[in-house]
Design goal:
A hairpin with a 2-residue loop joins strand 1 and strand 2 (22-24). The protein has helices spanning 27-31, 54-58, 67-93, 97-103, 105-132, 172-183, 194-215, 227-235, 257-272, 304-320, 324-329, 331-342, 372-382, 384-390, 392-404; strands at 16-19, 22-24, 244-247, 252-255, 274-275, 280-281, 346-351, 355-360, 368-369. The strands form four sheets. It has a three-stranded antiparallel β-sheet with strand order 7-8-9, with helices on one face. A two-stranded antiparallel sheet has the order 1-2. It is 49% helix and 8% strand. Belongs to the ARS2 family.
């Protein structure tokens, strides 16, 4: 098994967490006629007919059909085709560990634990680089720009920061960062407006707090705000946006504005796999995240409001929702199924001395309790194999549902 610690090597590069609640298959997996076979480590040479185009489909229909009816039938055909192909693929690979580790509620428990452990380590490394002045804010997944000679950058060195607040490297390092920025996918130029920068700082910081909390990351410097500094700046007509104080070994620096925003979205990408401008959350950050454009040479007004709305709706839903992987474990559904399935194993017994007692009905167990809920708790703690057996069907159903989302 390859890939990052705690994750299998995810073959479907286009499979993202597209909404709160689970993984979402990229449309191209199925619309192109590949049927999801790229999802398998060794899919073999499976050949089949692909999804018909609309033009091909209408040739099969009667000549006098109305365009609206033809469109309706095509969408119906397309939906059924994709669903059938996904079911076929799932049935062929459902017993393979790599697929279970992405969608099975039982396997996901261990995956989440490993993911959280790795995120805590990455957060620690990220913040150490930030404090030492060696943090690379480029769109890639690498975390440190410390040069090989062992020198560390001065946190307050103005000549190492460009106009956008990004720390510069010299020579080949600077050229490499420039190449990455050029290659990174760009977003709407409205993202560079000062008004939008302040909105995104607050929203990105809220996401950092939310995702850190989900993964057990504590005492993150990026979650703090120097309110005293903000009040002073505002009273003197300066910046009224959030200011984060970064204390290095030999220097102190305040992060604000564009530099603060880029630090936050870089942290979200490298630690949490969340591409802020790309509107996606993935199990592992690979490639380049989306970046802002200059905005000066583009039409800022074109669809700007629509883009902003889409961005804000996406992340406000995430802030109000649950960790997508946690959602896929469906703990509440499984617990409810366990309570119902274990009910026959709670035995009500009449005791001449103590009155009614409740006994454990598991094979070979003679434990007695004062209330039925204590028997349920005992069964879950001391007879987990029985619980797994009784809830196996609901777990398998959830496995399939997670995959089909």
């Amino acid at each position: 098994m390859g890939g990052r610690l705690g994750y299998p090597d995810e073959r479907p590069r286009g499979r993202y967490i597209g909404r709160v609640g689970g993984y979402q298959s990229g449309p191209s997996d199925w619309d192109s006629g590949r049927g999801g076979y790229i999802d398998a480590p060794n899919a073999g040479g499976a050949q089949r007919e692909g999804l018909m185009s609309y033009k091909q489909f209408i040739q099969e229909l009667e000549d006098d059909i109305l365009p609206a009816e033809a469109e309706r039938r095509y969408q119906e055909y397309r939906t059924e085709y994709i669903s059938t192909q996904k079911r076929t693929f799932f049935d062929a690979h459902k017993d393979e560990e790599w697929l279970k580790e992405k969608y099975h509620p039982t396997n996901l428990l261990a995956v989440i634990e490993r993911r959280n452990e790795l995120a805590r380590k990455m957060a620690k490394d990220f913040l150490l680089d930030l404090q030492s002045g060696t943090l690379d804010l480029g769109p890639g997944v690498s975390g440190s720009s410390a040069n090989k000679s062992g020198q560390t950058g001065d946190l307050n060195s103005d000549d190492e920061a460009d106009a956008n607040g990004k720390r510069r490297r010299h020579g080949r390092g600077a050229a490499k960062e420039s190449d990455l920025l050029s290659a990174a996918p760009k977003v709407h130029p409205v993202s560079s407006e000062s008004r939008r920068i302040q909105i995104d700082i607050e929203q990105a910081q809220a996401l950092v707090r939310k995702l850190d909390s989900e993964k057990g990351i504590e005492d993150n410097t990026l979650c703090r705000v120097d309110n005293d500094r903000m009040s002073r700046d505002k009273s003197h007509g300066g910046s009224s946006g959030p200011v984060i104080i970064i204390r290095g070994l030999t220097s102190v620096k305040g992060l604000e504005g564009i530099e603060l925003l880029d630090t936050l979205i870089t942290y979200l990408w490298r630690v949490h796999g969340l591409d802020y401008y790309g509107l996606i959350e993935v199990s592992e950050a690979k490639g380049l995240r989306h970046v802002r454009t200059d905005g000066k040479s583009s039409d800022v007004t074109s669809n700007g409001a629509e883009w902003e709305k889409k961005l804000d709706v996406r992340w406000q839903e995430r802030l109000k929702g649950q960790d997508p992987l946690e959602t896929m474990t469906a703990k509440e559904k499984i617990d409810a199924a366990a309570v119902e399935a274990l009910d026959p194993y709670v035995r009500k017994i009449r005791d001449e001395k103590y009155g009614w007692k409740y006994g454990c009905g598991a094979k070979g167990c003679t434990k007695l309790f004062h209330a039925s809920e204590f028997v349920q708790k005992h069964l879950k703690l001391k007879h987990p194999e029985l619980v797994m057996e009784l809830t196996s069907k609901v777990r398998e159903d959830l496995y399939f549902q997670n995959y089909m989302k």
